[in-house]
Amino acid sequence: xxxxxxxxxxxxxxxxxxxxxxxxxxxGADGDMTAMPMHAPTITTLRPGLLRVESPEGNSDYVxxxxxxxxxxxxxxxxAEKAIPVTEMTRDHLDELIEAARAAQAAAHETKxxxxxxxDDATKLLADMEALGEHINL
Amino acid sequence: xxxxxxxxxxxxxxxxxxxxxxxxxxxxAAKLRRAxxxxxxxxxxxxxxxxxxxxxxxxxxGSDSAPLLLRGTGSDQTHLLVVMTSERGLCGGxxxxxxxxxxxxxxxxKAAGKTVKILTVGKKGxxxxxxxxxxxxxxxVDLSEVKRVGYVNAQDIAQDVLGRFDAGEFDVATLFYSQFxxxxxxxxxxxxxxPASFEANEGxxxxxxxxxxxxxxxxxxxxxxxxxATQIFAALLENGASEQGARMSAMDNATRNAGDMxxxxxxxxxxxxxxxxxxxxxxxxxxxxxx
Lengths: 138, 291
Fold this sequence. Notes:
heterodimer; A: 138 residues; alpha+beta; ATP Synthase, domain 1; 2 helices; globular; B: alpha/beta; Helix Hairpins; Pyruvate Kinase, Chain: A, domain 1; 2 domains; five-stranded mixed beta sheet; 6 helices; 6 strands; CF(1) (chain B); membrane (chain B); ATP_synth_F1_gsu (chain B); cell membrane (chain B)
């Protein structure tokens, strides 16, 4: 069994990473999942969050938002609308994400009562984004 | 015969024009390289995105529950033409050829009894289309403040377009932009973005059956609006490279023409100077003979 698989992280503006990895933790829409070599072929959409890449050369983290991950037989590709290496992450980037989460929450509140899950989701997203900021010390 | 001083001024002014066009050509060449790199960088994303979307669309597309963005509203009465041009001029036939294509299409649609709406991106196209098709004109996206086109700009345009689609303002959206082939050739292109069509790249899929998380429909509904933004982004980049390419060749021509003109004027200048000298000599000689 192969120990590593090909991993590509691309955003519309540039390709951020292309390397052999042992495992990748993906912030999937239905919850986090970790993809390892020989994972079943899966396509999942992303929620804003932290993408953790483990490779033989060391680990690296990326903040991603919007897009999807495709786990295929050859490897994993993540297509994110926004992807920033944690090392390049600044307060401004985080504020943007928090702002987007807040806007989503406000929009969810405006819809009628029956969409409880919508409001909950948005609230959770907001909390996640704030926790993310603490996690990476901003 | 034009007087010597005038000719001299003329030559000087053409020379400075040549300097400017030469500088513009070099700036365009540098910008072109950057624009091409940007287009190159975005290609992997667009390619994979379309591959996944093609797969999804093929499996869900046929059913009635498919999102409106994919199967359309069921009519093609109202067309939205999104016309992308540049913010600046002096780039040869670049803007006019895009505007011409859009105008042809608009007239075709009108002749077929359809309603046409026009959304322009870039100042130059707005100016020329507003004159002829002012009644169809519904909006404009201003990019004149943008130094470097980013995905954010594409998202803004996509949001505008999708907002109008959700409000039922149109049934079919077509994108007009110029495809970059090389420095001397850019092809004005029309591309339909709504309802979305994805070309499946034959032989590229590995035939694996994917698990979808959440469901196929949910993913498709989430990704289709992003697909519109992706296509707009690709078109913006392609257009940016084309603009610089067109400007580069236009300015190259202008520089060459200015050079020809300088040569012609210099010959004329020398001739008239010679004529003046000859004249003076004749006067002196005839004056001396008269004595």
